[in-house]
Specification:
The longest helix has 32 residues, at 203-234. The protein has helices spanning 2-29, 46-57, 66-89, 102-132, 148-159, 161-164, 168-195, 203-234. α1 (2-29) crosses α2 and α1 crosses α3. It is mainly α. The N and C termini lie far apart (60 Å). Helices cover 68% and strands 0% of the residues. The chain contains eight helices and no strands.
């Protein structure tokens, strides 16, 4: 049940946050491989970028890559939150008095995040490809996936299964660092409120405040690695398909 609830929570969040993911991906890729100050700055801020995408590509463009993003949420958050809750319930992260041990909480949340990030990385790869592609672009490098399934087929045809997991180690680091900060901040914030009698009459508000603190923590710690991951995913694959590759003549 913990895995199911984690997946459902991630899916619900994904539907509402996907437009921000589209904007974030476009802004992270803006000026890629260009000298600072030498590229056109199409997206200036979050609101302007969202308006520009909706105006030029249609309002539905803000939900580009929604299906693989939901797939990412189901696999990543299902495994991450589910495994973390099971370990927390076992009492491994608490001392004899029931108080959380900080270093164990930090370690376990990071390990759960890294494990989940690896297996969910193919969905994040395809999400990045779809969200990076503008429908008004006429570049020859457009991938033009017709669906998430088509994206899996196209990548597999070109690079095999390892093509699905390109950048998976970076994804593991990204998710591990974000998970360790988010889950640790969340559970420690809730414990602090309980010990100091804050919001005692409402578990909902305790969870909400804890989630907000955890969200701030994950945004700060995960931003650098996510920028690297997005650019890594967006570059042309360097894998060579052995079935079609021939050694050049000397």
């Amino acid at each position: 049940m913990e895995f199911v609830l984690g997946s459902l929570a991630g899916t619900a969040a994904g539907i509402f946050t996907n437009p921000l993911e589209v904007v974030k991906t476009r802004m992270q890729l803006q000026g890629e491989l260009k000298e600072r100050g030498k590229h056109a700055k199409i997206y200036k801020n979050t609101i302007q970028a969202a308006h520009h995408i909706a105006h030029e590509e249609g309002i539905l463009a803000l939900q580009r890559g929604l299906v693989p993003f939901i797939g990412w949420q189901i696999v990543a958050n299902g495994l991450r939150l589910g495994s973390f809750d099971l370990i927390q319930a076992s009492g491994y992260m608490s001392n004899e008095e029931g108080k959380l041990i900080f270093h164990r909480t930090l370690l376990i949340s990071g390990l759960c995040g890294g494990f989940a990030g690896f297996w969910a990385s193919p969905f994040f790869l395809i999400k990045t490809h779809m969200q990076a592609e503008s429908s008004v672009s006429h570049s020859d490098s457009r991938r033009q996936y017709s669906s998430t399934l088509d994206a899996f087929r196209t990548i597999h045809k070109k690079d095999g299964i390892r093509g699905w997991f390109r950048g998976s180690l970076t994804c593991m680091f990204r998710t591990a660092s974000g998970s360790s900060s988010q889950l640790s901040a969340f559970v420690l914030a809730k414990e602090y409120m309980r010990e100091n009698g804050l919001l005692q009459n409402s578990l909902f508000w305790q969870s909400l405040v804890g989630s907000l603190i955890g969200g701030i923590a994950i945004s700060i710690t995960m931003a650098p690695s996510e920028l690297i991951l997005t650019r890594l995913y967006n570059q042309v694959s360097v894998f060579r398909n052995r079935r079609h590759w021939q050694r050049p003549a000397l």
